[in-house]
Amino acid sequence: MTTIDDVARLAGVSTATVSRALRGLPTVSPQTRRRVLAAAEQLEYAVSPSASRLAGGRTGTVAVVVPRITRWFFATVVEAVEEFLHQCGYDLLLYNLGGREQIRQRVLRAANLHKRVDAIMLVATPLRGADLSALTALEVPGVIISSGTPVPGWPCVRIDDVAAARLATRHLLDLGHRRIAHISGDPDDELAFTTHVDRRRGYQAALRSAGLRPDPSLDVESQFTIDGGTRATAELLARGEPPTAIVAACDEMAMGAMTALRDAGLRVPEDVSVIGIDDHDLAGVLGLSTVAQPAAEQGLLAARILLDPLGGRALGPVGGRPLDLPTDPGGAGTPDPPVILPTRLVVRESTAPPRAH
């Protein structure tokens, strides 16, 4: 039976180079790849993925943990990560916590991840003390996407949530709005992590910079869902005089806000302007103004960072920009500075000057 050693001898390269070349990894030059492929074809050698992984002490699998796969952000990130991992010869093992404590403990308390995965990606997953200790004990590369608990030595890829909410609020202020409401995440919701805190800070900072004092009666908490946005806006309207504009902490909440306003007989944007954060796939269809965050790009960049210690792919530009990566990942036991990706304002039909202007 032909082995990888036979191919390496015929091609005049190492077995590691043969493995990388046959898996299509970009760390092999085109000339060397052609030589390896020609040798493999001549010897009728077929790669056994499981055998090559075991031989290198690897599983060829990356664990990706998400709070709820049904949410737009998580699904968009996972799709980008899965595509990239597939191109690099890795499988994705998805853990959808779904708010279920028994699954959380089984996954994050780490016994079932031991020797099953080569690396771990946490997507906006809050951690408890026991989770953090167990994950650190695995001694495999890890990366975090979006808001969550920092893990010493694990890079983090995210946006600046404070800046995103400030940008959304500033857009409404620039249009002339002064009575601006905010609907945000419920701190008791397991999906709230720190995003709701940061985005509220950005909303309040923008108001203060315009000389306005944040009004607690214009700030309502709910879940990061369409239904959550509907309930929060209904509660907001029940408190008295409607605001002239609403900043929603995510696009799904903004969509719910638009529904509640319509049900109350109010028009968007003639009576109340609405802006969200995300640039959800449906935002353009609904004419929703938003602050767009690069969800898929966060997943792609995190996957590239994660595979680098495994030799999966050399780091390089993403979207035409060089990567701003931590210089000493896994170093002194403190979290590395996060890699911050930019957001941008997208103005659509849901925002306009208040009627008094």
Give me the side-by-side strand order of the main sheet. 2-1-3-4-5-11
- Total beta strands: 12
Tell me about the biggest sheet?
Answer: 6 strands, parallel
Q: What form results from the Cα inertia axes?
A: elongated
Distance between the termini: 81 Å
In round numbers, the mean pLDDT is 83
Tell me the number of helical segments per DSSP (H or I, 4 or more residues long): 13
The proportion of strand residues reads 15-25%
Compute the CA-based radius of gyration: 24 Å
Compressed to H and E, one letter per element, the order equals: HHHHEHEHEHEEHEHEHEHEHEHEE
Give the helix/strand class: alpha/beta
| Unreliable stretches covering 5 or more consecutive residues | 313-334
Helix content class = 25-40%
Write a brief caption for the model.
The protein contains 13 helices and twelve strands.
What does this entry look like structurally?
- This protein is of the alpha/beta class and 357 residues long.
- The protein is built from 13 helices and 12 strands.
- It has helices spanning 4-11, 15-22, 30-42, 49-55, 72-87, 101-108, 129-137, 161-174, 195-209, 226-238, 251-263, 283-286, 295-307, and strands at residues 61-66, 91-96, 119-123, 142-145, 156-159, 180-185, 219-222, 245-248, 273-278, 289-292, 339-341, 344-346.
- The strands form 2 sheets. A 6-stranded parallel sheet has the order 2-1-3-4-5-11, with helices on one face. A 6-stranded mixed sheet has the order 7-6-8-9-10-12, with helices on both faces.
- Helix 1 packs across helix 3 and helix 10 packs across helix 11.
- The protein starts with a helix and ends in an 11-residue tail after the last strand.
- The model is unreliable at 313-334 (pLDDT under 50).
